[in-house]
Amino acid sequence: MTRTPVNVTVTGAAGQIGYALLFRIASGHLLGADVPVKLRLLEIPQGVKAAEGTAMELDDCAFPLLKGIDIFDDPNQGFEGANVALLVGARPRTKGMERGDLLAANGGIFKPQGKAINDHAADDIKVLVVGNPANTNALIAQAAAPDVPAERFTAMTRLDHNRALSQLAAKTGTSVEDIKRLTIWGNHSATQYPDIFHAEIAGKNAAEVVNDEAWLADTFIPTVAKRGAAIIEARGASSAASAANAAIDHVHTWVNGTAAGDWTSMGIPSDGSYGVPEGLISSFPVTCANGTYEIVQGLEINDFSRTRIDASVAELAEERDAVRELGLI
Ligand code: NAD
Ligand code: LMR
């Protein structure tokens, strides 16, 4: 049976994450090895020529699943018929820029993109926001798309999740595939909280295997939470291939489901679970099945975790209040 191609819109397509992402989407890693895709690349006018160059390279790969590439600098066209939208392009913080300026600059990108998604995307649209500040950019886009179910707007904390898996495997001398049920809570920022209290390593409770709260507080959590800054320091540019990989993982899991007995972390609109105010786009433990996700319920949250979750959620609330004041939501 011939399948209808899935339309995947990628913003910031000419950027460094875009370059690491597009070839993997086209080769079937995003949706599945039997799912044809059409790429819709959205850039600002100055980025269009570079996106054209990437499109030439995509052609040169002769990917059997890639059924078309179109390039736009108008969001209304870029999101036309989109089934999946990866919002990667964002305004980076530059020297002398205050936090409010950054939020305002990104509001100028994510508000019109949210409206364009609202007006032009397919009914089954799924949105992943990668561009920082990812959670609050997702909130801005969602607020501009009242006709799209709110839960279709998600923000990426899968990179943090993968970083935590890797650090925990290294500490315990195990392999990442032995580790299940790890959680990133809160914001994709230095306040995020990687939680191993419910995680299992080869079936044993991870916190008990580690049995070292000082390592957890002073090494594991800051290493994961500040990994983005460490990469920038080392590479002279922010993470790109690992961020693209996490975006692939996020959407693949959302569409194809979590493995039995495991969960993942996604930034999603809170329904009030775990004391996170309703509507904030915060990272939670989620299971996915049939193209939808559900927050894992009933986890006991100890004092160590509670303080840290609350701190990250407070930061999200501050960001929400700031964009509300700017009239962006
Ligand atoms: P980059 O600067 O290399 O590329 C960004 C691209 O976006 C550029 O080509 C630019 O022209 C384009 N762009 C800017 N405004 C646009 C708009 N309005 N519409 C369409 N395209 C637009 O940046 P990058 O390294 O690819 O990173 C992209 C974003 O991802 C940054 O905000 C970065 O901080 C963020 N990031 C997030 C995570 C995460 O885990 N959530 C991880 C790494 C990076
Ligand atoms: C990351 O976590 O690697 C990025 O969000 C860092 C950044 O500021 O772009």
Automatic annotation (TrEMBL):
Function: Catalyzes the reversible oxidation of malate to oxaloacetate.
Protein name (record): Malate dehydrogenase
EC code: 1.1.1.37
Domain of life of the native organism: Bacteria
Residues annotated for NAD(+) binding in this entry: G12, A13, A14, G15, Q16, I17, G18, N106, Q113, V130, G131, N132
Lineage, opening ranks: Bacteria, Bacillati, Actinomycetota, Actinomycetes, Kitasatosporales
Catalytic activity line of the entry: (S)-malate + NAD(+) = oxaloacetate + NADH + H(+)
Enzyme active site: H188
Organism of origin: Streptomyces venezuelae (strain ATCC 10712 / CBS 650.69 / DSM 40230 / JCM 4526 / NBRC 13096 / PD 04745)
One GO MF term: L-malate dehydrogenase (NAD+) activity
Family annotation (PROSITE patterns): MDH
Domain Lactate/malate dehydrogenase C-terminal residues, every copy: 157-323
